[in-house]
Write a structure and sequence with these properties.
The protein is about 45% helix and about 15% strand. It is an alpha/beta fold. The chain has one domain (about 5-250): Rossmann fold.
């Protein structure tokens, strides 16, 4: 796969940015997808290209399913056919069983499950005949030990966890499908620096994963020719804590 085009959704910022940089160092051409982070996406592309890599940014609103076909077409015209996808972009908004609404459920399922599936379908149907494609879905360690918070978000992650194995089975031998389930890697908007530090220190390894740790796992799975249908937890053992609520609510004083 070396030198092929990898699409990273939500690639302009946070964990997605680190994934793009990591894969670019391996010689992949990077299609940096973004929604509203245009300046960050362009800055990332400039950084990759200045280091001798190949990259280009592509805008797309994941709430619009029609963008998937257009996105792949634009990438092919600019960089070449997509041979790998990192489904990293996600919607993460609070609800629970008492505040659940159809809008919240549909929005999370659309962005976090339906569109990634359409991306994989587009990859599979347009993959060059001489290439084995690779997909890595970014999930969440919550699928191992769920709690009542962020209900629609969690359900969407369960959907993609199930689809990871389902598609790994059905798309053999042309496409490998795997996933990474990160732990608490970066602070959420509702979290203080003190709360984030406390959350990471409470993990069994007494430190949380970094964006680079997540990117390393993605890098491995993108290239692991004999691995499909696997979920790698990169969470410093956070899932063993079996929290009764989301980590933000348990670590903010």
């Amino acid at each position: 796969m070396r030198g092929g085009v990898i699409l990273v959704t939500g690639g302009a910022v946070r964990i997605g940015r680190e994934i793009c940089l990591n894969l670019a160092k391996e010689g992949f051409s990077i299609a940096v997808h973004y929604n509203s982070s245009s300046s960050e996406a362009n800055s990332l592309v400039e950084k990759i290209t200045s280091n001798g890599g190949m990259a280009q940014s592509f805008s797309g609103d994941l709430s619009d399913v029609s963008m998937v076909e257009n996105l792949f077409s634009d990438i092919k015209d600019s960089l070449g056919a997509v041979i790998g996808i990192v489904n990293n972009a996600s919607l993460f908004s609070f609800d629970d069983i008492n505040s659940l609404s159809k809008q919240s459920w549909d929005s999370h399922m659309h962005v976090n499950a339906l569109v990634p599936l359409l991306m994989i379908s587009e990859l599979s149907r347009n993959l060059p005949s001489d290439c084995v494609g690779s997909v890595v879905n970014i999930l969440d360690q919550k699928i191992s030990q769920p709690n009542p918070d962020y209900l629609s978000y969690t359900a969407s992650r369960y959907a993609m966890a199930g689809m990871t194995e389902t598609l790994a089975r059905s798309l053999c031998p042309s496409v490998r499908v795997n996933a990474v389930a990160p732990g608490h890697t970066l602070p959420s908007p509702e979290q203080t620096p003190e709360g984030f530090k406390k959350a990471q220190s409470q993990s069994p390894l007494q430190s949380g994963p970094s964006p680079g740790d997540i990117a390393d796992a993605v890098n491995y799975l993108i290239k692991a020719n004999s691995v499909t249908g696997q979920i790698i937890y990169v969470d410093s053992g956070e899932r063993f804590l079996s929290r009764s609520r989301d980590v933000v609510f348990e670590t903010e004083d």
